[in-house]
Amino acid sequence: MPSPLISVIVPVYRCADTLERCVQSVLAQDFADWELILVDDGSPDQSGALCDAFAAKDSRITALHQKNGGASAARNAGLNAAQGTYIDFLDSDDLLAPGFFSAAVPLMENEGLDLFLFCLLRLSDGGCYRPPVTGYFASPADLKPWFLPLFTEGGHFESPCNKLFRRSVIGGLRFDPALRVNEDVLFNLCYLQKCGALRLTDAAYYRQDDRGGESLSRSMNADFLQAEAATRPALQQFLLSCGLTEAEAAAILNARRAAACRNQFGILTGRGGSLPFGVQRSVFAQIFAFAPARALLMQQLRADPNRMQAGVIAFCVRCRLAGALTLLCKLKNRVLGGNAHA
After folding, report:
1. Under a CB-based contact definition with an 8 Å cutoff, are residues 39 and 89 in contact?
2. What ranges in 112-171 are assigned the alpha helix state H?
3. What is the pLDDT of residue 340?
4. 83, 115, 101: which is closest to 190 by C-alpha?
5. What CA–CA distance (Å, rounded) separates 289 from 320?
6. Regarding beta strands 61-66 and 86-89, do their DSSP bridges make them parallel or antiparallel, or are they unpaired?
7. Tens digits of per-residue pLDDT, 29-79?
8. Would the pLDDT of 123 be above 90?
9. What is the DSSP letter of 14?
10. What's the whole-model pTM score?
């Protein structure tokens, strides 16, 4: 039996309500040469049984079952089983846009692409982070003029789901299950160092359903700073391999670190979280100790329409009052029932 052209890998965990529409978005593609690998990651609901039911109905669908190990472990299991020339990652609460395969495969084949990067359309607000540049590039190094926005804005290289990969280039590369956040970034950075030609487009071929609290895209943890630090060496190595000077690479690394601090700061001040007081204070202290992060936060707070609240927070940032800001966040969460801006 000939190998399929595309292998779609879906980590499955507690998604009984969304898995069918996810699978249907693959079945509805106007291109039939694919396999769909559903990896049941020890799901406690009926998701595993649904995987088996889908596999029984269509020979192109495979159901794998394993003990719970997280999305990275599930994707790795899918990679180990995949037979396709190209690899597509799809989350169980998301959808592929109609016509994606028929649009992507000719480009991969005719242009000899190792990577096809496209947009994710957020169903929560219809937003779509478009890359700063589109078109064909003979190698990742040709994207040097756009490295700063590509690696610090819009999450273009954060998710594996807005990309089509060549399996032969992936080779033995796998996701690191030890990382809770940014394991996707590390995978993408390692892949870029092996990558040849690539194409970027602003077409939205992926529909990300981030409306539910259990969405993979909503399951954020309070460890952005550690994750950024863990992936920083890989990004530095990639930037230097593309011919950037150490100073040019440092500027991008500092901007990315500041962006990670901003994101972590937003989680802790906006959504609240349940970190112990001492841990949250320590995270704020780490953010305040990094001057580019303070500058970025002050710029953001000056533009905040809620001037009274932003003014108090800005004072804490400017004076590096990590304890005071932690106390303020805890009090706000208590008043709002722990669901501030959830």
Report:
1. no
2. 147-152, 167-170
3. 40
4. 115
5. 8
6. unpaired
7. 999 999 999 999 999 999 999 999 999 999 999 999 999 999 999 999 999
8. no
9. S
10. 0.89
